[in-house]
Amino acid sequence: MSLDRVDGWVKVKGTAPYSAEYAFENLVHAVLITSTIAKGFISNMNSKDAEAVPGVLAVISHLNSPGVPGYGEAKQPAERANMGTAFRVFFDNLIYFNGQPVAMVVAESWEQANYAASLVKIEYEIEKHRTDFEANMQHAAIAQGVLKNKNSPFQDYVRGNPAAIHDAKVKIEATYTIPTQHHQPMEPHAIIAVWEGADKLTIYDKNQGVKSAQGNLAQAFKLPRENVKVNAQFIGGAFGSGIRVWPHTVAAVLAAKKLNRPVKLVLGRELMFTSVGYRPYTVQKVAIGADENGVLSAIAHEGIGQTSAYEEHLERTILASRAMYACPNVSTKYKLLSLDVNTPTWMRGPGDATGMFALESALDELAYALEMDPLDMRLRNYAESDPERNLPWSAKGLRECYELGAEKFGWKNHTLEPRSMQKDGMFVGYGVASSLYGFHRHLSKAKAIMLASGSVVVQSATMDIGPGTGTAMTSIAAKVLGISPKKIRFDLGDSSLPDAPGQNGSSTIPSVGSAVHMACEALKKKLAELAAAVPGLGSKDIPYQDILKYHNLPQVEVTEESKSGPERDQYSMYSFGCHFVEVHVNPVTGEVRVKRVVTCADVGKIINYKTARSQSIGGVVGGIGMALMEASVMDHRYGRYINNDFANYHIPVHTDIPQIDVIYVDKPDTLVNPIGSKGLGEIAIVGVAAAVANAVFHATGKRIRELPITVEKLV
Ligand code: MOS
After folding, report:
1. Can you give the pLDDT at residue 542?
2. 3-state class of 622 per DSSP?
3. 706 has catalytic annotation
4. For residues 19 and 190, is the Cβ–Cβ distance under 8 A?
5. What is the mean pLDDT of residues 103-116?
6. For atom 4 of ligand 1, which residue has the closest CA?
7. How far apart are CA 298 and CA 255, in angstroms?
8. Substitution site in 189, 469, 682 for ligand 1 pocket (most atoms within 8 Å of beta carbon)
9. Residues in contact with 144: Cβ distance below 8 Å, sequence separation at least 6, in sequence order
10. Closest atom of ligand 1 to CA, residue 504
11. CA of 490 to the centre of ligand 1 (A)
């Protein structure tokens, strides 16, 4: 099936309401004031002049915050995880990072609030900060949370005999670096917070999980869950920035509480750099060895990721190296480096996009050292079962991905030697990289309602941050019920709907898609039973509305719950893929142009081809940005980002993006769930940066191990 987006029209017509666009009488506007130092404390704050500005209603800070009841009791940062973040907004005068919210001005208009914010005088006691990753790497350590948890996947890992690397015929040892990169959704984060009395809270908030936000805020404000309503129906991209409840959200809720009026807060692009996480700066060391036939003998993968001083953020950086290839001797190590910065968070393909840049670059280096085709190298080490968990894969169509992709791309048309291909005065390079991402199926519920009119409403508190969730769910429902998608409406993004996970970890289709499938199956069954009771007609071919009419029912509804079965422990479940990239590099200027991409994925059954394809293209675009452009640059004298706008933080635009062909194996993985479909969002980006870097090496003979691959690194 390949439906157009069910919400396409409301989006392009501008009638779809985003978080900042709900209208309320009495709505007031908030502007955040953020710290200008990276570490220390506020010694004095004077808001008199600001308060005197016409229209200003309050200047809220640690001095007069109504307080978050949950903050006081949860003494340890880790205990505050269930309130969204460890950081406590307006709690005390301590400064943990430059850009930290320290006060908030609320006024009748945004202009008044913004002007008044400029009049708040804050004095700081400055302490020496550490923000420079490279200069502080010696302070990296295993996370406290990992030390305390024997079962943490981030414990040091050893399989076989890692010392085997010393006997390897060929080996590569190299360090790979990715800089801090920020999610750059078109829609900045925004919230409208509305209190109804002292104990009922509604927020219209850009986030990726209405149910988790509801739970976090209920914990923080000590409210019964059902007293907190979270609405996030339309979201203009997020890429992970909306997985948590961030301090600015709580700040707006506090302001609304203090003033007892609806408060709107919109983060400007600059604040997006310090308010909603980022892909952490990460340095990885990979040692990889093989015999003369290219058969891997050992992989050692160590990663150090950046985190804040007040919270540990862990990601899958080194994990892919355990499962990706058949290799008997593997070791991994993962450390964190605490710096005086805000906490990073998951960003598309979190951990794996970072880790696979290193692994897939190192494997490519090894292939060239052996004078072996990089694709052959990957095929030679194909893991027929999961070498980490010693389990069969539930399904793995990666071989088909390599084959279909290589065919479409014309991989065999290239000569292996670096710098051996030229076109129109440019060096031409071909690169390939693999991709994987773990499978996640969380508990999800869906309700399916057949109305007397014959129309169907399906509901679940799932999300759509952009991939087209409603469209995919409509496809699933239409297929099961055998009715036109036009007769189906899918409701999401509202915490009062049936329980569902947030949209993260590529889990939506596998989890919620299964629940929708099951709910529609159950609805069909219930209707068939009702039809069987219609005398003289039997159960065949009665229009659904006639069944309801006969029984004089206004509607028939069912709710079903979906969760992982025992197969989860018997099989290893992953999505797999690969990317083929052609780059042209200008030999004089070092400019890299991506000319073609063929991206392939085995994610089981494709639910809705059109939206799936868009998601794959989006992932490749993100990967090209990661490879060639994106880096958040900090001035370490102040611990402050200096390229915090779209003029200076470069992301790909149309002219940077070539033809992207998307290929799916499109065979159901019958072991993962009833729809046979696995996650697609993350593997779409995982490996892309390595494929680009590998193509750049093939074009130029220069191996760039530090992203992004900008011109000065190539000339
Ligand atoms: Mo994704 S980083 O789980 O939004």
Report:
1. 82
2. helix
3. no
4. yes
5. 98
6. 240
7. 56
8. 682
9. 312
10. 3
11. 22
Closest Cα partner for 702 from 689, 687, 714, 690?
714
- Quick: pLDDT tens for 641-684: 999 999 999 999 999 999 999 999 999 999 999 999 999 999 99
* C-alpha 235 to ligand 1 mean position (Å): 14
For residue 504 and ligand 1, the question of a CB distance below 6 A is answered with yes
Place of tokens 């033809």: 659
Q: What is the tens place of the pLDDT at every residue in 128-176?
A: 999 999 999 999 999 999 999 999 999 999 999 999 999 999 999 999 9
Q: How far is the CA of 678 from the centre of ligand 1 (A)?
A: 15
User: Does ligand 1 lie within 6 Å of residue 239's CB atom?
Assistant: yes
Q: Report the residue among 348, 440, 507 best suited for mutation to probe ligand 1: largest number of ligand atoms under 8 A from its CB.
A: 348
Instruction: Please name each of the domains of the chain with its CATH number.
Output: 19-127+197-275 (3.90.1170.50), 139-180+278-440+570-713 (3.30.365.10), 444-563 (3.30.365.10)
Distance CA 413, CA 408 (A): 11
Any idea which residue has 């007769």 for tokens? 487
What burial class does residue 334 get, using C-beta atoms within 10 Å of its C-beta: 0-12 exposed, 13-18 middle, 19+ buried? Answer: buried
Cβ neighbour number for residue 472 with a 10 Å cutoff: 30
Please state the atom number of ligand 1 nearest to the C-alpha of residue 465: 4
Order of all β-strands in the sheet with 101-107: 56-61, 101-107, 28-34, 263-266, 190-196, 200-205, 228-231
CB of 244 shorter than 6 A to ligand 1: no
Model pLDDT, residue 534: 83
CA of 536 to the centre of ligand 1 (A): 53
| Degrees to nearest 5, angle at CA 643 with 615 and 247 | 70
Is the pTM higher than 0.95? The answer reads yes
Which residue, among 649, 659, 600, 594, has the nearest Cα to 624 in the 3D structure?
594
Q: Is the Cβ atom of 346 under 6 angstroms away from ligand 1?
A: yes
